[in-house]
Amino acid sequence: MNQTIGIFAHVDAGKTTLCEQILFQSHAIRKLGSVQNKNTVTDYHPIEQQRGITVFSAQGTFQTEHRTYYLVDTPGHADFVTEAERAMSVTDVALIVVSATDGVQAHTKTFWQLAKKQNLPVFFFINKCDSPIADLTRTETQLKEFFDEGCCDFSLPFHENTIENIALTDPELLECFLNGQLQPQTLTCAAQKAIASRKIFAVYHGSALTGEGVDTLLAGLDQFCPDTVLDPEKPLSFQIYKTTHDEKNTRLSFLKINSGTIKTKQAIHEDKINEIRIYNGNRYTCVPQATAGMLVAVTGLQHLQTGDRYPNAEQPSSVFTPPLMVEVFCANADSSTILRNLNLMQEEEPSLKVEYNEEKQQILIHVMGKIQIEILQKLMQDRFGMELTFGPPRILYKETPKGSAIGVGHYEPLRHYAEVVLRVEPAPRGSGILFEYQPGVNNTDSSRQNLIRTHVLEKTHRGTSLGAPLTDTKITLLAFKDHLKHTEGGDFRQATYRAIRQALRKGDTDILEPICTFQITVPNTLAGKILSDLQRMHAQCQPPQTLDSFCEITGTAFFREIMDYPQQLAAASRGTGSISIQPAGYDFCRDPQQVLAESDYDPDKDEKNPCGSVFCAKGAGYFVPWNEVDALSHCLKELE
User: Fold this and answer.
1) Which residue spans within 42-194 are E strands per DSSP?
2) Mean pLDDT of successive 10-residue segments in the chain (640 residues)?
3) Residue 328 — φ and ψ, nearest 5°?
4) Which end of the chain has fewer CB atoms surrounding its CB within 10 Å, N or C?
5) C-alpha 412: how far from its chain's center?
6) How many whole angstroms separate alpha carbon 18 and alpha carbon 210?
7) 520/522 Cα distance (integer angstroms)
8) How far is CA 363 from the centre of its chain?
9) Residue 288: is it exposed, middle or buried by C-beta count within 10 angstroms (0-12/13-18/19+)?
């Protein structure tokens, strides 16, 4: 049986060191490497070795008597959370590492929420218990307080508290427990079932550096990991969670096989599988085929992208979107070369979303933070010899409908015809773009309905206030009309896009800006100053928590207000304070009028995203402004 375990942690919790110990103690590697010596299996990239942090997800493989495990080491820095999120999407079990010296940190909470969203079983390993400042009791208490009361110590399986917690998950089990009739085999099966259903979360502790407790963790994973049954006899399905290029510039697609079997020379749409590789760090072995549950890299897939699912190509939506946008400059290459190479980088990190503004001759990319910019700069230098520089980071605003409005898109140049009517309205925060059909809308023509749905979801639509990406929007199809002879491919695309824009133009949009959660730890003497700073930044704070001579302050803030605060904190605390900032989505802009005043966007001059429609008269198409379209609409008359 194949099982994928993803390892997640706040940066510097010891995640990569734990990966190394797991591979060593399971006899997958003969020699134990270390982050300090720059020779671990999973942090093999020169950038990772230089910085001492994980930047790219990497996999290792080990076996036990009953299972083959695929271990995925993921980045712990907030700038690379999208890489970790994609890795989590292909894991069967999440192993979250928490430092006993630091306790539960901001990014620990991020990974917990991601695992909860994906309904993944979670194991915890409390690391650095050998440190003189470790506080195991505090950390165990925090797991229960911040996450779930079902976090139980499994390091000495089946001591009384753990047995009681397991028994509480099942009424029949509880009765047996109270009567003293629980058998070990029954308890093991019950624990596995409770972990699978996220009623119990097994907690282990030790030291990844010394190896203490890792053997107990391994035994626990093998004993209590829920069985993941994937059928190799079913049709092939897989998800690509990572794309890279090897030293020969061969494109590698890392994927999880969810069902069926994949073989070399097999056709996947218009592509063909050339090689199937099983990776252990940067080393690999080639195999002729791979079956359900395996994590492999294949060559030959040129058209499927990171995040794509086969045979259904729809990508799962990401929880995290970059809050910043930067302009890219290069002294030793022209724009076309810069764009070509940045697009290659975008294949590996889709959140970059490379844009080219023809009017202003600007190349723009989306980024999570300054560390990601530095990594990208180094990668472009090493791989392409390009010396990139970047403009100052700008906040990446988004827009959402201010209210509900009905939009009409009509596209009728000569020998073309399509009309679409949509209701566009705000949706809950964080929901992205939602689409539904109104009951009774041309039910006999599902192919046209599905085509319109595809056009709604296939692109990033632009708002009418700033021209910023549209989000948190519900779009309902009310009506559509085609022509038996003149409706061509692409007509409904034009009509759909124009209907959305017209609705936004009618109803206007609200501006959204990125927000984040923060966790600040400073000496108690600085607490007053920090709280004053946070108040000035319009942050929402929880009451400070005192930890001996230090205090911890958590809360939520607008990203643009707090993104430069780490440097100020370091100076004010003389290096004794720390801050962790995690993206937390978007909320209404604090000062939209100021943001609008700084923008020169005019929705009626945006030729790529027109708000008006095209009608036909006297054998020729002509443009109709958005505010005159309703009077000429064919569908609106029928709806009335």
Assistant:
1) 58-63, 68-73, 93-99, 122-127, 151-153
2) 95 95 95 94 94 94 91 94 94 97 88 94 98 94 92 86 87 82 82 94 97 96 89 93 92 96 95 96 96 96 92 72 93 92 94 88 93 95 94 95 97 94 95 88 75 93 96 95 88 97 97 94 92 95 86 93 91 86 91 94 95 93 96 87
3) -110, 135
4) C
5) 40
6) 10
7) 7
8) 24
9) exposed
Helix (H, G, I), strand (E, B) or coil at 263: strand
Residue 595's contacts (CB-CB under 8 Å, 6 or more residues apart) are 397, 466, 511, 513, 589
DSSP β-ladder status, 324-330 and 295-299: unpaired
Partners of 579 in beta bridges: 520
* Helical segments of 315-369, H only: 335-348
Q: How far apart are CA 137 and CA 411, in angstroms?
A: 67
Quickly list DSSP for 106-139.
HHHHHHHHHHHHTT--EEEEEE-TTSTT--HHHH
Residue 134 burial (C-beta neighbours within 10 Å; 0-12, 13-18, 19+): buried
Q: If residue 372 lies in a helix (H) or strand (E), which one and from where to where?
A: helix 370-384
Phi and psi, residue 87, nearest 5°: -65, -40
Beta carbons within 10 angstroms of residue 190's beta carbon? 21
Give the C-alpha distances (Å, rounded to integers) separating 185 from 77, 189, 224. Answer: 41, 6, 12
Structure-token pair, residue 259: 């069902």
* Cα separation, 483 vs 616, whole angstroms: 13
User: What pLDDT, on the 0 to 100 scale, is given for residue 315?
Assistant: 64
Surface-to-core class of residue 41, CB atoms within 10 Å of its CB (0-12 exposed, 13-18 middle, 19+ buried): buried
- Amino acid 105: pLDDT: 87
Confidence (pLDDT) at 439 = 77
Structure tokens at 88: 């989590």
In 3-state terms, what secondary structure has residue 515?
A: strand
3-state helix, strand, coil in the chain (%, to 5): 30, 30, 40
- Encoding tokens for residue 207? 């030291």
Sign of CA dihedral 26, 32, 36, 41: negative
- Tell me, what's the pLDDT at 181? 76
Selection from 577, 572, 570 nearest residue 523 by Cα: 577
How far is residue 389's CA from residue 548's CA, in Å, rounded to a whole number? 44
Neighbours of 325 (CB within 10 A): 18
Omega into 543 within 30° of 0, i.e. cis?
A: no
Backbone angles phi, psi at 614, to 5 degrees: -120, 120
Residue 251's DSSP bridge partners are 245
> Alpha-carbon torsion 328, 329, 335, 341, what sign?
negative
Q: Please state, in angstroms and rounded to a whole number, the distance separating the CA atoms of residues 563 and 513.
A: 13
Long-range CB pairs of 525-532 (<8 Å, 24+ gap) are 526/572, 526/573, 526/577, 527/551, 527/553, 529/572, 530/569, 530/572, 530/577
